[in-house]
Amino acid sequence: MRVAMIGTGYVGLVSGTCFAEFGINVTCIDKDERKINKLLNGEIPIFEPGLDVLVERQTSAGRLKFTTDLETGIAGAQAVFIAVGTPSRREDGHADLSYVYQAAKELAPLLKDYTVIVTKSTVPVGTAREVERIIKEENPDAQFDVASNPEFLREGAAIEDFMRPDRVVIGTDSPRAQDVMRQIYRPLYINETPIVMVAPETSELIKYASNAFLATKITFINEIANLCEKTGANVQQVSKAMGLDGRIGGKFLHAGPGYGGSCFPKDTLALAQIGVKHNAPQTIVEQVITANKNRQEDMAKRIIAAFDGDVKGKTIGILGISFKPNTDDVRDAPSLVVVPMLQQAGANIKAYDPEAREQAEKHFQNVDWKDNAYDVADNADALVILTEWNEFRALSLREIKEKMTQPLLLDFRNIYTEAEIREKGFRYISIGRQEINADSAAALKAAV
């Protein structure tokens, strides 16, 4: 079995490498010569735990190859996956499909034997049909079918997600294409992974609906956290009890500074625009988008409020810049909102992230980058945990306190407990579990 993967970004590189692990011969194709040269030299352009080991193993075995030559790359492939970027258009939030359509246009005249063209990129409803139209227009004699095969990879856990998925979704009307896709995913089928065969339109919408629902869960629990802070309830206990209900589940019920990354912000925007286009407004998703934007801004406001509204000249240490741990991805991360707002208010920023500094430096100016959490704490007026990297979970609080000008810790991921932090003499601010003071308790009693 031979497949080609157009695009060596996050989805393309992980998917191509994992297919090679299945025993399939895979050629990954990209126009970016610098990226391909890095891969040919064993350098991985993204951070994903375990990916470097798999790439080295599969390239050594000869099952994984990289090239900039499209014609060579797709030669003999039974399936060609399109895994190029579909970023949000700035002007309206729609997914930019220009790279997908360009890939279809360029590969069309190169098709010889029967081939399944697979859209792996996250694309709006109707994209597979448009790809089919483009290829027919460019090469009327081509023997092919188009299938939709969305990815469901979590950054930081992508290899595990690919190898042990909850389901594989394949959208095509062609029995022949279904057979090819079943062959590709045969190792997962043997492991009894559900293979969901649907129409292309359904497959495309499954991806957006899934991500939008998860974003909604995050936003919902963040708003519940706000209510907990006003009433004296504990959001972690609320989340745990909710999650024990099998109809709800505990995943994505973790209060924090809002969602970010390459998927949820882009996909919620795109789904909202798809709803507008088809006169079926997605009002819940629209509110999620607004609430998440407000949430990220609120995190900066909370930090400023901790200084009685004035952070001018204060040094604030930021622990974690990536949108989540185990990735260097800073796209739409809360830090991209929080740090500039603090700087605009006059604060000086020191920061540390185990992996994301290189990517973050493209977005931030005048940040004092440090090599560890303790250097960030040195002479800081406050320490803010924005990303729950494991190394932040067991800090020496005594040493941190000694280094700071004042012991103020804002834990926006709730990785510590109030008891252990306050025992060390910190002023501690977390999410959705603040103890209410006497005045607040009186106000709550009056409201009841």
Brief summary:
By secondary structure, this protein is of the alpha/beta class. The chain folds into two domains: about 1-200, NAD(P)-binding Rossmann-like Domain (Rossmann fold, 3-Layer(aba) Sandwich), CATH 3.40.50.720; about 210-430, Rossmann fold (3-Layer(aba) Sandwich).
Structural write-up:
The structure is a single chain. This protein is an alpha/beta fold and 448 residues long. It folds into two domains: 2-198, Rossmann fold (3-Layer(aba) Sandwich), CATH 3.40.50.720; 211-429, Rossmann fold (3-Layer(aba) Sandwich). It contains 19 helices and 14 strands. It has helices at residues 10-21, 33-40, 51-61, 70-74, 98-107, 127-138, 158-163, 175-184, 186-190, 200-231, 235-243, 264-277, 283-305, 335-344, 357-360, 373-377, 397-403, 418-423, 438-447, and strands at residues 2-6, 25-29, 64-67, 79-82, 115-119, 144-148, 168-171, 195-198, 315-319, 348-352, 367-369, 382-385, 408-411, 427-429. It has a six-stranded parallel beta sheet with strand order 3-2-1-4-5-6, sandwiched between helices. A six-stranded parallel beta sheet has the order 11-10-9-12-13-14. β4 (79-82), α5 (98-107) and β5 (115-119) form a beta-alpha-beta unit. α12 (264-277) runs antiparallel to α13 (283-305). The longest helix has 32 residues, at 200-231. The protein is elongated and about 75 Å long.
